[in-house]
Design brief:
The protein has 72 residues and is mainly α. The chain has one domain (1-72). 33% of the residues lie in helices and 0% in strands. The chain has helices at 17-32, 49-56. The longest helix has 16 residues, at 17-32. It is globular. The mean pLDDT is 76. GO terms for molecular function: galactosylgalactosylxylosylprotein 3-beta-glucuronosyltransferase activity; metal ion binding; xylosyltransferase activity. InterPro entries: Glyco_trans_43 (IPR005027), Nucleotide-diphossugar_trans (IPR029044). Its cofactor is Mn(2+). Involved in the synthesis of glucuronoxylan hemicellulose in secondary cell walls.
C-alpha cells in the first residue's frame, strides 16, 4: 500500500524541504500507528531493484550505510 502525503510549508521555521517531508511522513505513521517499512528515497538518487528485494526481507528493523560512489 502507498500513501501520498502533502506537507505545508511553515515559513516561521527554516527547515529544508526534505526534512519537512520526512517529518510529515513520520508524524503520519505515529498518528495512525502504521506497521510496515518506510524508505525515504531522494529524487536525485538511483536505486537498484535489489534494494527493494532486501527491504521486503526486513522483519523488525533494518538500516544501511549511505555511500557516495565516485571515480578515483
Amino acid at each position: 500500500m502507498c500513501r501520498h502525503l502533502v506537507c505545508r510549508k511553515n515559513s516561521s521555521v527554516n527547515v529544508h524541504r526534505d526534512v519537512r517531508q520526512r517529518n510529515t511522513a513520520l508524524k503520519h505513521i505515529r498518528l495512525h500507528r502504521l506497521d510496515g517499512i518506510v524508505y525515504f528515497a531522494d529524487d536525485d538518487s538511483i536505486c537498484s531493484l535489489d534494494l527493494f528485494d532486501r527491504l521486503r526481507q526486513i522483519r523488525r528493523f533494518g538500516t544501511w550505510p549511505v555511500a557516495m560512489l565516485a571515480q578515483s
